[in-house]
TrEMBL record:
UniProt catalytic activity: L-cysteine + H2O = hydrogen sulfide + pyruvate + NH4(+) + H(+)
Example GO BP: L-cysteine catabolic process to pyruvate
Gene label: cds1
One annotated Gene Ontology cellular component of this protein: cytoplasm
Name of this chain's protein: L-cysteine desulfhydrase Cds1
GO MF terms, alphabetically ordered: lyase activity; pyridoxal phosphate binding
Cofactor: pyridoxal 5'-phosphate
Region (Disordered): 368-389
Organism: Mycolicibacterium duvalii
Length: 389
């Protein structure tokens, strides 16, 4: 991590930078907590699903919270000054949000990303004033971001290391505190489960710590796509686990276990096939009447499976997950049959699973992709199953 600032930044400049970020926060209302319209069987069995809609942030995703925290962390640690070039290893929503905050402070921003990154994502980052720097392989982004920070005398934000430490997990309007405050008047105000994607590890670390700090009975489920290191590392206990292929679900899934991932605060991990993530994104988009991104599909797949297990067990209660980002930015990819076919993803099988869940509240019990307590074992099925039972 770069610490290239040789003398402390001007206190007056830093004070004003923090003021600008805090003023931006005050101008922004909290994100909505939506009650997902489950079929009639859910009311009969007294279960409910809620979606924390992070798409309403000004930069359109959950990563707006992370970017704000990373900038405040860098400013208050004396790592970002008025002449600092700010650098991140990201090809997605984090870079879009960080470019926004860099522009607010009048700082140059460089996003380091694989050259395979879609033109739409590059355009989004550039629209916020950021510059994109490309590498040939996804695993090169970390070292290249650090090299650029050293070369420019800048600061590498390093979301993958700093995500869990830059956020005040005890409260201070973090996402966990917001969820519980918004659930306070619901029939089941303390969720049975909160479901989030692995991502950097920062969101699961914040929510998992907060659950324990407030002594809630809620359990935390972290979902992970194919080709990501988090799930196999959690299952085997090997923190050095790496994968050789890149995740096909933008926003979540990493080739290595990132430093911000804290397995000790996670109760269950679920590995979700990529085709299931896409099918769930399509399904929820139809139900809500607006598109959601594929990482939201991953979380929804996990949440539906847990709801079905609650129904099967006769357990009443609520489940909360996130609308992490909107789907409009994926119009040319995850919502195009030709693109999906070219990337080897067929959502038709998982779509049948979702249709059966909507009809009956049942989830198939076959080959399992889950690691965690025995009470939820056999509650999820690989997405290739076409005949739910």
């Amino acid at each position: 991590m770069s610490r290239a600032v040789c003398r402390p930044p001007s206190r007056d400049w830093v004070d004003n930078a923090v003021r600008l970020i805090e003023a931006d926060t005050r101008r922004s209302a909290d994100t909505h907590l939506l009650r997902y319209p489950l079929p009639a069987w859910a009311a009969d069995r007294d279960v409910a699903l809620y979606l924390k809609d992070e798409t309403t942030h000004i930069t359109g995703s959950l990563k707006h919270r992370l970017a704000r925290s990373l900038f405040l962390y860098g400013l208050c640690n004396g790592w970002i000054g008025e002449d600092t070039t700010v650098i991140e290893a990201s090809s997605g929503s984090t870079a879009v949000s960080e470019a926004y905050f860099a522009a607010m402070l009048g700082l140059p921003f460089i996003a380091v990303m694989p050259e395979s990154t879609s033109a739409a994502k590059v355009a989004l980052i550039q629209s916020q004033g950021g510059r994109c720097h490309f590498v040939s392989e996804s695993g090169q982004v970390y070292a290249e971001a650090q090299r650029l920070a050293d070369e420019t005398g800048g600061h590498y934000l390093d979301q993958f290391t700093n995500a869990e430490r830059a956020t005040d997990w005890r409260g201070n309007n973090n996402i966990a505190e917001s969820i519980y405050e918004q659930m306070a008047l619901e029939a089941h105000p303390v969720p049975e489960w909160i479901v989030v994607g692995a991502g950097t590890g920062g969101t699961s670390a914040t929510i998992g710590r907060y659950i324990r700090y407030r002594r809630h009975a809620t359990r935390l489920c972290v979902v992970d796509p194919e080709n990501s290191a988090f799930f196999p590392a959690y299952r085997t206990g090997d923190p050095e686990m790496v994968t050789t292929a890149s995740s096909r679900i933008e926003g979540i899934g990493r080739p290595r276990v990132e430093p911000s991932f804290l397995p000790g605060v996670v109760d269950v991990m679920v590995s979700v096939p990529d085709a299931a993530s896409v099918a769930a994104a399509h399904h929820v988009s139809r139900v809500l009447g607006r598109r959601v991104g594929p990482s939201t599909g991953t979380s929804i797949w996990g949440a539906f499976g847990l709801l079905a297990q609650m129904v099967a067990d006769g357990c009443r209660g609520s489940v909360v997950t996130l609308l992490a980002d909107g789907g409009d930015r994926y119009d040319e990819t995850y919502f195009r049959d030709e693109w999906l076919a070219s990337h080897g993803m067929d959502p038709s099988g998982p779509a049948e699973v979702l249709a059966e869940f909507e009809r009956s509240g049942r989830w198939p019990r076959s080959e399992l992709c889950i690691s965690g307590p025995s009470e939820v074992r056999n509650s999820h099925n690989a997405a290739s199953t076409k005949n739910p039972t």
